[in-house]
Design goal:
single chain; 292 residues; alpha+beta; 7-stranded antiparallel sheet; two-stranded antiparallel ribbon; 4 helices; 17% helix; flat
């Protein structure tokens, strides 16, 4: 009898031990916790893809500023049109030529408009116009001219035009939200006329100089859009001593900065288009200007 009891105990004890081993203690429980690790910042070295190593930089030997050249460019301007169809002023958003702001705004204020509408009601609105201006350049002169190799550590950047916003009372006049308009203000008859004048302007561009010492392409960095044909014609006259590397002439890019004097003939508008996809908010422009 004792033997049977002992055997039974021996058989039960291993089972209890196995059961205890198969059930982990509370402190042995596995917890799956997601711990977000900080993302490291990677420093990107500024690299200028236009910069190359050369032994000597190109040197300008001769140039002829263009004369008697036909030019054309596009202006973008926001015009404020009241409920009666009168334009009370405007804000240039992009200008094709320097020194034309006053004549452009004066032409807008002389024009008659069909006012914007909200349903059948005539309402005051801002409307954005694209106006193509064409005319003739009588002559030009290079006042300042600097040519240097691009900085390898400074990538090129286009110089954006300064932020303009409505002067004086234009910024506070009531204007209807463009999203509620059923039709935008549209000029009935608009002819922009810019009188001839002499102006000075800055020029900044990347210019590619070939191994033969001529220019075959350029990237405007600071230039009114109407003067791109002028710069193209001007660079076509450049004669340079090309860059050299290991005693051989090689092509390379140079950075051209300068100022030019332009004698412009009169400009006239050739096309006028209402840009219904562009909206002008004078308050937003004013805030943006303050943040600069």
């Amino acid at each position: 009898m004792k033997v049977r009891i002992l055997v039974a105990i021996l058989l039960v004890l291993p089972g209890l031990a196995v059961a205890q081993k198969s059930e982990p203690r509370a402190w042995q429980q596995r917890l799956d916790i997601t711990v977000p690790l900080p993302v490291p910042a990677v420093a990107v070295k500024p690299v200028n893809p236009f910069a190359v190593k050369v032994d000597s930089a190109p040197q300008l030997l001769n140039d002829i500023p263009p004369a008697h050249l036909q030019l054309a460019g596009r202006a973008r301007v926001a015009a404020y049109v009241d409920a009666g169809g009168d334009c009370l002023g405007g804000v240039p958003l992009e200008l094709p030529f320097p020194g034309i702001t006053q004549d452009l705004i004066r032409s807008l204020m002389k024009a008659s408009f069909e006012p914007g509408r909200n349903g059948t009601a005539r309402v005051p609105t801002w409307t954005v116009l694209r106006i193509t201006l064409a005319g003739k350049l009588k002559n030009s002169a290079a006042i300042e001219r600097h040519i240097e190799l691009p900085d390898p550590a400074t990538p090129p950047a286009r110089q954006e035009a300064g932020i303009l916003y409505p002067p004086g009372r234009l910024a506070t006049l009531p204007a209807t939200d463009p999203a509620t308009l059923t039709s935008f203000a549209t000029p009935k008859h608009l002819k922009v006329r810019i009188s001839g004048r002499e102006v000075e302007t800055a020029v900044h561009a990347l210019v590619h100089v070939t191994a033969s010492g001529s220019c075959d392409r350029f990237v405007p960095l600071e230039l009114s859009n109407g003067l791109v044909p002028w710069l193209s014609a001007y660079l076509a006259t450049w004669k340079l001593r090309p860059a050299t590397a290991d005693g051989t002439a090689v092509p390379c890019w140079v950075e051209y900065t300068g100022r030019v004097r332009l004698k412009m003939g009169g400009l006239r508008s050739t096309t006028v288009q209402v840009l219904t996809s562009e909206h002008f908010d004078p308050k937003a422009y004013g805030k943006l200007a303050e943040d600069q």
